[in-house]
Amino acid sequence: MRRGITGRYEVTLVGGEQVRAFIPDPLPPKPPLELSNSRQRLLERATLALGRLDSITLLLPDPDLFLYSYVRREAVLSSQIEGTQSSLADLMLFELEEAPGVPLDDVVEVSNYVAALDHGVARLGEGFPLSNRLIREMQAKLLSSGRGSERSPGEFRRSQNWIGGARPGTAHFVPPPPAFVADCMTQLERFIHDEHTPYPTLVKAALAHVQFETIHPLLDGNGRIGRLLIALLLHHGGVLTRPLLYLSLYFKKNRDEYYRLLDLVRSDGDWEAWLDFFLEGVEQTADGAVNTAWRLVTLFKEDEERIRGLGRAAMTAAVVFGAFRSRPLLTINEVCKRSGATFPSASKAIDNLIKLGIVREITGRQRNRVFSYDRYLTILSEGTERL
User: Fold this and answer.
1) What's the predicted TM-score (pTM) here?
2) Which of 76, 217, 243, 254 could disulfide-link 235, Cβ–Cβ 3.0 to 4.6 Å?
């Protein structure tokens, strides 16, 4: 539905030139969303896909293991959209304090993203509301070090920002002036918690994401926090018991269409076109996550079967293999810490895993060697290839 412009322009003076900044109308859209039969079916398919994703955690031997890996995959993808060039292996090596040749600022940004998400999930788990305060806390984690750490972490912006172009006067889009940011975010917070809104949580998440990106309330980190907001809304709204839905890969693959539809909402009020795109992404992403989980379960079972063929050495090898299931990149010291095996026992078990083709040494060094569970890492890394 083409409702027309979904806000108003405020002309301000920025850097000596006049700028037309956009101030969005509060949610929900007016007139209400047009939920046609085809759109209702799309919503039902997306909701069913989320149900399958949520139930997969009941079938996995260790759902926290999957969450650990999937969160890091999302961190890489979401950060890549913002221009970083770190891979999933880079991040995991960095967490081992082993990241030779990796641009430090890039991998620190990705690591900070993990910290921001972990903080948000932990706070919600404590009963803290999904709120503007939590958004600011997460952004403070995101910008705690590395690039952007000087850009007002933990605060809504007090200066004008813009999207595209070298300056506000030539920008593709200029969000609200700083004096309007607090009110816009207060209205968004009210919408998120409004129990009388006639839309399910999934639709509210779609609307809230656009509104957040339009307000662009932070000096840095708007894209990453805005994508995290989707996962946290679904988790907070009870749609997912664990925050397992991350749309960054879908947005990365459909980047031009994503930005086109955000613009279309602002200029023409076509929320329905955006909602269709969003729901298709939810269905694809949830189904993809379920498929990934089953592929990992199958992989682990196959490799466990091969380990059983080691005879007397199988017991220690299985314990060490468990450490690699929790972290696909490890040093021997880390294996000892995670498995409880002695250094000689862990070394012998790793040698056996190498002979079976399950892990390999990736540094070529004699000391502080790093071993990779390659097939596991390959499955997790799909779609995270450097841009």
Assistant:
1) 0.92
2) 243
Angle at which helices 343-355 and 332-339 pack, to 10 degrees?
Answer: 110
What does the alpha-carbon distance between residue 70 and residue 114 come to, in Å, rounded to a whole number? 10
Q: 102 by DSSP, 3-state: which?
A: coil
Whether 382 and 375 have beta carbons less than 8 Å apart is answered as no
Nearest CA to 212 out of 197, 229, 234 is that of 229
Residue pair 349/313 in contact by the 8 Å Cβ criterion: yes
Other CB atoms within a 10 A radius of the CB of residue 383 amount to 16
One-character DSSP codes across 355-367: HTTS-EE-S--SS
Domains in the chain: ranges and CATH:
7-291 (1.10.3290.10), 309-381 (1.10.10.10)
Residues 6+ apart with CB under 8 A from 213: 222, 223, 226, 262
DSSP three-state, residue 62: coil
Angle between helix 132-142 and 104-125 (nearest 10): 150
Query: What are the tens digits of pLDDT across the range 303-318?
Result: 999 999 999 999 999 9
Q: In this model, does residue 282 exceed pLDDT 70?
A: yes
